[in-house]
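Technical annex, item 7. During the second reporting period the consortium partners agreed on a shared format for inverse folding records so that results from different sites could be compared directly. Each record opens with the tokenized structure and is followed by the designed sequence. A conforming record, contributed by the partner at site C, is shown below for reference.
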């Protein structure tokens, strides 16, 4: 089987890994460099922020990914020689929250939760360091013989009634047996008339980065949508905003100041940390955070793996597995009807 994947973010690269492991000949194409968009910009928390706020379609996918992650990341690290810093650092949730709902949901979903005064403690929440994960994935793929084509922007999908014939790009035309679109926030735009039924759009998220003494913060800290993520070497990420501003990746002073003030309120010692950087990324937003992982309703060799919104890193291994099972006609580990292509 010969597969061309458009989009070299965590979803496209993750899909490539799984397909190549299954024996497919895979090419990944990106209009710039792989991993330069949302997958680089994100925080790398491997759980929905308040998991009890989401539909079963999200929970099923994130819990399957949670089970796959340790082995997935180990494989990537072994192949690449790069440690993506997968760490089970736990998450402390500061009030306000609906404690009763949280306790009930966690009990029903086999998720450990402890109450420590007015703080919720989720000891099993893990994280990964996005830029390292992407770098490791890319290298792992190259070592597996996956072809990576960068600086090639897909500009047209040429099809008959039931099949894609070729992709036109700024680097010429490409053909394959199967095509997978994993172009994040740009997926709908790229698909043009083949994607009119989809509801995937960019939602901007701004992040701040600080350098602190290692150990200043041991766990992920979350309050009212703002989170702090500590890395091994003392870096602390603060995120994030949710802004419906189209394909605009600019940062704003107001958002930076608001994130900084909220983070200081949650961790006053952050005042001693050095401010490093402020950036923004565009999440591929879909309603209720439910992605599409499916074949096109008419074009039998076109697939989509996109719309992972706030949790694309979390959902990457499970989404790749589901996509690969579809291409290879294998049994699925869960009900995938929620991820079908509308229309
Ligand atoms: C601030 C922020 C914080 C986040 N925090 C978390 C978190 O803590 N945990 C979590 O799980 N998720 C988080 N996310 C969400 C997560 O980053 C995304 O869901 C995920 O990265 C989506 O991956 P993707 O591969 O679909 O998209 P992307 O990483 O955006 O990749 C899409 C790729 O497609 C390419 N492309 C687009 N158009 C074309 C074209 N025409 N031709 C060729 N290539 C094209 C782009 O260049 C890009 O490389 C966060 C996101 C942001 C912005």
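Designed sequence (site C submission):
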């Amino acid at each position: 089987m010969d597969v061309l994947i458009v989009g070299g973010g965590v979803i496209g690269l993750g899909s490539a890994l799984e397909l190549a492991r299954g024996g497919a000949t895979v090419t990944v194409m990106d209009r710039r460099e792989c991993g330069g968009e949302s997958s680089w910009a994100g925080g790398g928390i491997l759980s929905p922020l308040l998991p009890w706020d989401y539909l079963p379609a999200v929970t099923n996918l994130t819990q399957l990914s949670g089970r796959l992650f340790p082995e997935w990341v180990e494989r990537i690290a072994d192949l690449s020689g790069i440690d993506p810093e997968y760490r089970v650092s736990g998450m402390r949730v500061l009030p306000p929250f609906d404690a009763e709902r949280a306790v009930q949901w966690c009990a029903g979903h086999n998720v450990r939760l402890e109450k420590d005064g007015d703080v919720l403690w989720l000891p099993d929440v893990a994280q990964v360091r996005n830029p390292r994960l992407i770098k490791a994935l890319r290298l792992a793929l190259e070592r597996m013989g996956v072809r990576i084509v960068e600086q090639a922007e897909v500009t047209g999908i040429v099809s008959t009634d039931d099949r894609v014939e070729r992709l036109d790009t700024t680097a010429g035309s490409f053909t394959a047996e199967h095509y997978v679109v994993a172009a994040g926030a740009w997926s709908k735009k790229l698909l043009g008339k083949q994607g009119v039924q989809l509801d995937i759009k960019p939602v901007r998220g701004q992040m701040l980065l600080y350098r602190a003494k290692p150990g200043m913060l041991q766990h992920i800290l979350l309050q009212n949508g703002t989170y702090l993520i500590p890395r091994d070497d003392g870096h602390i990420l603060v995120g994030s905003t949710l802004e419906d501003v189209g394909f605009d990746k600019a940062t704003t002073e107001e958002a930076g100041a608001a994130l900084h003030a909220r983070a200081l309120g949650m961790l006053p010692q952050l005042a001693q940390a050095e401010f490093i950087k402020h950036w923004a990324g565009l999440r591929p937003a879909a309603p209720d955070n439910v992605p599409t992982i499916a074949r096109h309703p008419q074009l039998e060799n076109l697939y989509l793996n996109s719309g992972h919104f706030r949790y694309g890193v979390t959902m990457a291994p499970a989404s790749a597995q589901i996509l690969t099972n579809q291409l290879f006609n294998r049994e699925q580990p869960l009900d995938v009807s929620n991820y079908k292509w509308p229309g």
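The chain has a mean pLDDT of 98. DSSP finds eight helices and 17 strands in the chain. All partners now use this format for quarterly exchanges.
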